[in-house]
Amino acid sequence: MRNDARALSGIELALYMRRKTLRDWALVAAICVAVGLWSAWGTNFNLLALIEGLPHIYNLGGRMLPPDLEIIQNLGGPMIETLQMALLGTTIPIFFAIPLALFCATNTRRSHTLGNILRILLNSLRTVPELLWAMLLVSAVGLGPFPGTLALILHTTGGMGKFFYELVEGVDPGVIEAMEATGAGRFKVFWFGIIPTILPNLMSVALLYWDYNNRAATILGLVGAGGIGLTLTHAIQDFQYREAVTCLIGIVLILTVIDRISAAVRSRVI
Amino acid sequence: MPEIPSRFTLTRILIAVIAIAIYWWSFAGTGLNPVEIYNGMPGLWDLLRHMFPPDTDILLSLWTPFIETLQIGILASLIGSVIAVPVGFLAASNMSPKFVYHPVRLVLNVFRGVSEIIWALLFVVAVGLGPMPGVLALIIFCVGVMGKLIAEAVEAVDPGPLEAMRATGASGWKVFVYGAWPQVLPTYLTICLYYWDHNTRQATILGFVGAGGLGYTLLFAISTYEFEKATTAIILLILLITAIDRFCLFLRKKII
Prior knowledge:
heterodimer; A: mainly alpha; MetI-like fold; 0% strand; flat; B: mainly alpha; 10 helices; 81% helix
């Protein structure tokens, strides 16, 4: 009788629900703590090592400040390279992602098998971190911004492809049917029916990826793929920590500026 | 007959010219031109040939890094989400005084402005290789991002129920736990799940700078040109992240 919620009423029901909710949350909390402890054991996480490492961090801080301002003029070139990588890495994939989305989306595809294979391909492209792509491409074609841009293109095509086919699938079927009723071929339905419907969302996704790619482009330099990340890596490898901090400050400033530009464009255009 | 305005206004032509100029300059700057693509083709083909077929002998030895990556993601998300709650409340303009709000926001911006990899690099230099610097770096970044999102959720809290509770004489603590917190909870849970997924992805990347997990194995495999092993690790990576993605979707449907 106690456990049959339908037989309870009013205050009794409220108290029962509250106890049940607390019990559920306690269970979730217990699971989290157990999994957390297992993870801590597995990663050798102990606060002692962190406390022992604090003098190292303090030491590092002392060697990192004050930032070395003399190299600011050398940062301009790599910074621009990073921005260029991000720009190309965002706009070129749009041309690949739109046709791919057409072939994947359930409401516009010709063949189910091809569509599913392409979906798996897109998923793989976007799951592999762009840093990993960059590493592979650097060992294939050498250092510089070229492999970095290719890596961004690969990763972004996957990501945009997924967003795009979800958008295409969300288009109101009435639009497509109306256009087909007037005798429009597949391409016209796509170009004049689907694209105008999803265009604001397309642009929103593109802006999102531009923002993300700028951040990613700075990191790609870590594996030799050009831009300011490369300058940063060289500084750290040469133990020139003060230069590294200047690079870092430059990166944070540029990313903040891009953030603002992106927000401004978004509020104006979308 | 009314004159239809021309599509080619001066502003649009100017924008088009500037855009073409920027693109031309970008292509030149990044070296993305047909010549270089042609030159890079043999290298790419070579890479592909070496990457397949994947080396399945090392599947057993990849198990430990695989689990390690999972653990880094879980631990960083748990600790980060716990720390982010009080920090988020401190960073909310309607809950904390001005002299606390501004510095905390600044600190949070620094935490998230510097990407996780840089933090991981710094921590590797500070505490050595292995999974621990990865966990620490992810915690820092996670607190930065989640703190900001929680602060925004707290600022969006509806003051009506809070005022009503205070009118019935509820003390500050009760107002918080039963008034403000339930309004923040759904957003908080969504953020936690999303960043668990994100942290596991990042855990693999952080391995590239030595912070443990599958990324570290990948770094080794690629540096020693053992590309077949790299392919196996990559496939495991894709499986792990896809699995967590699905799990998060499933949890999301159950909870929210």
